[in-house]
Design a protein that fits this description.
The complex is a heterodimer of chains A (262) and B (384). Chain A contains six helices and eleven strands. Chain A is of the alpha/beta class. Chain A has one domain: 3-Layer(aba) Sandwich (Rossmann fold). In chain A, a hairpin with a 2-residue loop joins strand 7 and strand 8. In chain A, helix 2 packs across helix 5 and helix 3 crosses helix 4. The N and C termini of chain A lie far apart (46 Å). Chain B contains twelve helices and ten strands. Chain B has a four-stranded mixed β-sheet with strand order 1-4-5-8, covered by helices on one side. In chain B, strands 2-3-7-6 form a four-stranded antiparallel β-sheet, with no helix packed on it. In chain B, strands 9-10 form a two-stranded antiparallel sheet. In chain B, strand 9 and strand 10 form a beta hairpin. The longest helix of chain B is centred in the middle third of the chain and has 37 residues. The chains are: A alpha/beta (262), B alpha+beta (384). The interface between A and B is medium-sized, with 16 and 18 residues. The complex binds flavin-adenine dinucleotide (FAD). The site of flavin-adenine dinucleotide has 19 residues of chain B, from strand 1, strand 3 and helix 12. Flavin-adenine dinucleotide binds next to strand 1, strand 3 and helix 12 of chain B.
Chain lengths: 262, 384
């Protein structure tokens, strides 16, 4: 089983003070700590577990600058076999579609049975790269995957739905699965793993090597343009409802109905 | 001049930080502080990931890195939790260190891999009730009888003594020779040998998860080939050992200071008095600025001493400067961290007083601060 895992090097934003930079279109990155996207962490772990059980290889791929090497090294230290970094100044400003195109060029000629991506990325949260990539490759996909069983060229997967529901679908391989957190418990990076990872080469490919042109990548090759980034203004105070529990419940039901939520 | 960790060292730092943040939790720290118990399960877990054998060569199941990488790991352990960090980061380093330098191939193969893998623990016993800073004479004696050595005496304050599988013990092997330190030797002993009895010490101020005990040695017989290195070289081997491990203690101090600082910093941002966060009071923010500066200075002294050691240029003055300074900084910073927490800092549940209690040991073990200053002056006098 050869598995490719697409990973992203993202800033840790959960506890950081986020500020919008002077362009108004992105956040200030100075001072932020970057690490592997949380969802990708689970994707890599899942891939390595499958490899350990069934044999094969795990290759991690990222689109990113040299800084992203640390994320790739982490994956190698956890058991990935190979790492590829797709890097070009022209890739700057790519949206999910452009990123998927870049990945597609790198992946289309590689041998694989499965491709994993995180269900979404912690920075922009678009959750689109996986499905677009599957479309470009012309293979099936399943998103928000919480469990995988592989049998006879088919992946039987549990997908997480809203409200705690799960559905089970069967996907023919090769396929793209976007992995949800909680599917496993990612292992710690060991010192032995780091030693191994440091000995491995990270293959770097640029725009021309991938056979891409300037207008296919970056802002030119993107469908989404960010006009402005802003912190949502606090618009109104929370509304407090008075009355007995029965009266309050009735009011809540009314509000929900009025907004078309029930 | 190069003041940055390399890529590999950064990976090591990140790996140990992630491990400690999940595993060395403050709650666990408090629990083991109260229980005065060694966190054996956690020690094994850390060992399996390679975090406790940084300096042991791969050939003996270790990681083959240097003292600088070891310091990075030790620092992170003590940053996350000073008591558990101290317990897991230091006690087991000495026996493999001595054996690697002076052990026979047989001794290395027998004793080092189980320690590297966390399947065993060890203790190095120098201090005696009557001899602490001054170990130039030992009351514990080893006398040769046939092909055995017979050891008699007692050792005090020995880290890991009650839980150790292997021991290295400093003994007087020549009672006549002057100066007496020329007549000392190191011997290996194992748990369960007749005549070796360990008693656990209770009521330490800090590092309570790090188990300390005394050893009673009465007619302990060890085979001839349990002598480590050459006869009558024990004192020199011991000083040579401290040249490295004292830097590790400095790293413990840096880690404890860093951990307490971060707690104080976060607390100061969130605690409001007089209508604003206390970090907005200059008295508090200047404290934090000074704490951060001192930690950085201590860290640089420590890393430099470690780097010199790894380059084969071990410098006892640099080592002692790092230990004396870092341990003092740890005391000052952990003290101020409590102050910044106000009354809450005085409570165990806020996890900052423990840093202060633990930090004190770094001024005492592996040579008190006074002894470090003597070493610094001895070497400066020679140089200048
Ligand atoms: C928790 C803990 C763990 C330990 N672990 C180990 C271990 O694993 N193995 C081991 O062998 N030992 C261990 N020790 C012992 C430790 O190394 C000694 O306690 C330390 O070296 C000091 O010796 P002492 O306690 O006898 O103090 P003393 O030597 O009696 O010193 C008392 C005071 O006098 C000062 N002093 C002494 N001589 C001079 C001088 N010439 N000039 C100026 N001041 C001086 C000292 O600095 C100190 O302030 C441990 C101790 C503790 C508390």
């Amino acid at each position: 089983m050869d598995i490719l895992v697409c990973v992203k090097h993202v800033p840790e934003t959960a506890e950081a003070d986020i500020k919008i930079d002077s362009t108004g279109k992105t956040i200030e990155k100075a001072g932020l700590v970057f690490d592997i996207n949380e969802w990708d962490d689970y994707a890599v772990e899942e891939a390595v577990r499958i490899k350990e059980k069934l044999g094969g290889t795990v290759t991690v791929i990222t689109v990113g600058s040299e800084d992203a090497n640390s994320t790739l090294r982490k994956c190698l230290a956890r058991g990935a076999d190979k790492a590829i970094r797709l890097s070009d100044p022209k890739f700057e400003g790519s949206d999910s579609y452009a990123i998927a195109k870049i990945l597609h060029k790198a992946i289309k000629d590689l041998p694989f049975d499965l491709i994993f991506t995180g269900a979404q990325a912690g920075d922009d949260g678009y959750a689109m790269v996986g499905p677009i990539l599957a479309q470009l490759l012309g293979i099936p996909h399943a998103t928000m995957v919480k469990k995988i069983e592989l049998k006879n060229g088919v992946a039987r997967v549990n997908r997480e739905l809203e409200g705690g529901l799960e559905e089970i679908v069967e996907v023919k391989l090769p396929a793209v699965l976007t992995i949800q957190t909680g599917i496993n418990e990612p292992r710690y990076v060991s010192i032995m793993g780091i030693r191994k990872a440091m000995k491995k080469e990270i293959k770097v490919l640029g725009m021309t090597e991938l056979g891409l042109s300037e207008n296919e990548v970056g802002e030119a090759g993107s469908w989404i343009k960010i006009e402005k980034l802003y912190v949502p203004p606090v618009e109104k105070q929370a509304e407090f409802l008075d009355g007995t529990p029965e009266e309050i419940a009735a009011k809540i039901a009314e509000i929900l109905k009025a907004r078309g939520l029930v | 001049m190069h003041f940055e960790l390399n890529e590999e060292q950064k990976e090591i730092k990140r790996a140990i930080r992630e491990f400690c943040e999940k595993e060395f939790t403050p709650e666990l720290g408090l629990e083991f502080d109260e229980k005065e118990e060694f966190p054996m399960e956690l020690y094994r877990k850390a060992a399996k990931l390679g975090f406790t054998s940084m300096r042991i060569p791969e050939q003996y199941e270790g990681q083959g890195y240097g003292l600088l990488e070891e310091c990075i790991v030790v620092e992170e352990m003590c940053r996350a939790e000073p008591g558990i960090g101290a317990a897991i980061s230091l006690g087991n380093l000495m026996v493999p260190d001595i054996l690697l330098k002076h052990g026979t191939e047989e001794q290395k193969e027998k004793y080092i891999p189980p320690l590297a893998k966390g399947d065993a623990t060890s203790a190095a016993a120098f201090t005696e009730p009557e001899h602490g800073s001054d170990i130039t004479r030992m009351d514990t004696t080893a006398v040769k009888q046939g092909n055995e050595w017979i050891i008699n005496g007692s050792k005090e304050f020995i880290t890991n003594a009650p839980i150790a599988d292997y021991f290295i013990i400093l003994c007087q092997t020549d009672q006549e020779i002057q100066p007496s330190h020329r007549g000392q030797s190191l011997f290996l002993a194992e748990k369960g040998m007749a005549g070796l009895e360990a008693t656990k010490l209770h009521g330490k101020m800090g590092i309570k998860p790090c188990i300390t005990g005394s050893l009673a040695l009465s007619d302990l017989r060890v085979p001839e080939n349990n002598l480590v290195g050459e006869l009558n070289k024990g004192f020199y081997y011991t000083l040579e050992l401290f040249n490295g491990t004292r830097i590790t203690v400095a790293a413990q101090a840096v880690g404890m200071a860093q951990g307490a600082f971060e707690r104080a910093f976060n607390y100061a941002k969130n605690r409001k008095q007089f209508g604003r966060p206390i970090i907005d009071f200059q008295a508090i923010s200047f404290k934090l600025a000074e704490m951060a500066t001192k930690i950085e200075a201590a860290r640089l002294l420590t890393y430099r001493a470690a780097w010199l050691y790894d380059q084969g240029k071990a410098d006892p003055a640099a080592t002692s400067m790092a230990k004396a300074y870092a341990s003092r900084v740890a005391m000052e910073v952990t003290d101020e961290a409590i102050q910044i927490h106000g009354g809450y800092g005085y409570l165990a549940d806020y996890h900052v007083e423990r840093y202060h209690r633990c930090a004190k040991i770094t001024e005492i073990y592996e040579g008190t601060t006074e002894m470090q200053k003597l070493t610094i002056m001895n070497f400066l006098k020679k140089r200048i």
